[in-house]
Amino acid sequence: MSTEVEVNPKRIPRAVAFNMLQKVAAGGAMLSPQWEPASSHGYVFEQGQDVDDVKLFERYAQILVRHDYLEQRFFDRITRCPACASQHLNLREVCPQCSSAQLSSEALLHHFRCGYVGPSHHFSGKAKDGRVCPKCAGRLENLGVDHDIPGQSLKCGPCQASFQQPPVSGICLSCGLETPSDRLVSEDIYSFCLAPLGREALRQGRLISQRKERVVEEGLPVLRSEVLQNFLFEEHKRATRYGTPFTALIFDIRYLDEAKLNLEREREIVGTLRAMLRNVDLLGRHRSGMLIASLPMTPREMANEVLQRLVAHFEQLTGVQVNAQVLLFDAQVPFEQTIQAAVLKLRSF
């Protein structure tokens, strides 16, 4: 058997892949970046990582995502210098005329009689003596009676320009390049959490490479039916023994136009479910058109809240109808019987 997981043209040693799964598990089933200002990359996944370590970790993690061992979740977005990729940027508002950052704020005045609006320095005189309108020469004496202050304006010290919406510019503290904000480089960074296949690999103490051993369906991040049944059986036993709450959600998905029943549409629905469920919740296939999400340590009230959020989302979809209900498992009733009763109820709609 090969000692590497292959994703052409990249490879990751099996020992390294398994070690990464263990690190994610040790982080509570999710490993998130940690901000590290001293790092040239801006963040690390473990203390002491240098930039090459972070890039290699992310490359390996992406391989494990493509192999369904890990799932990636959006963590944040970091802004970098387009020249040197440094995240050490000084962002500030600048003058649109001369690009100076020497800006001061002043009140905008609105003269009711003639309708003139302008920064306060356009009105001669002092506020206590009554300013004079530059348009009609009328005197502004009582705030709220003959004039008001509709907002603030900015004034540039070097060129004296007045404006209300200054552009933002960034100076790289590493290389000194100044760049308009719309030309700075943005990079999405991700957390990585264990997928069902990663959990199973840790349980067995090895990576699972043979297709017949796979616990998820081909092309979809959902547990195969028989694997789901095993997980539900074990969770039901655990909940019964320790008296902990155990609920699940069952979904009956019907496509109104059967011609549109394809992998991409189903992947969209599964992606929505995965994004709205917790990391510890498992999603699997019960039968064609039916999915079950297990909710360990979740009482009925909380399960109902989750169900309502999901149903509200699916009601916005076109071309598909999703019926769902909470499965409340009883220690005295076989879990298969609870599921079968729910299936009969959903199919009657």
CATH arch. level architecture of the largest domain? 2-Layer Sandwich
Task: Provide the low-confidence segments as ranges.
Answer: 1-9
Order of helices and strands: EEHEEEHEEEEEEEEEEEHHEHEEHEH
Number of helices: 7
Number of E-type strands:
20
Helix content: 25-40%
How many domain units? 3
Mean pLDDT: 84
Task: Write down the Rg.
Answer: 30 Å
Query: What is the CATH topology assignment of the largest domain?
Result: Alpha-Beta Plaits
Q: Supply the helix-strand structural class.
A: alpha+beta
Kindly provide the name of the CATH class of the largest domain: Alpha Beta
* Principal-axis shape: elongated
Please give the order of strands in the largest beta sheet. 9-8-12-13
In the CATH hierarchy, what is the superfamily of the largest domain? Reverse transcriptase/Diguanylate cyclase domain
Largest sheet: 4 strands, antiparallel
Strand residue content: 25-35%
Distance between the termini: 50 Å
List the helices and strands and how they pair.
Layout: E1 4-7, E2 10-13, H1 14-26, E3 30-31, E4 34-35, E5 43-44, H2 51-66, E6 70-80, E7 89-93, E8 103-111, E9 117-119, E10 131-132, E11 139-140, E12 147-156, E13 162-163, E14 168-172, E15 178-180, E16 185-194, H3 196-204, H4 225-242, E17 246-255, H5 263-276, E18 282-287, E19 290-296, H6 300-314, E20 320-328, H7 335-347
Antiparallel strand pairs: 1-2, 3-16, 4-5, 6-16, 7-14, 8-9, 8-12, 10-11, 12-13, 14-15, 17-19, 17-20, 18-19
Helix pairs in contact: 1-3
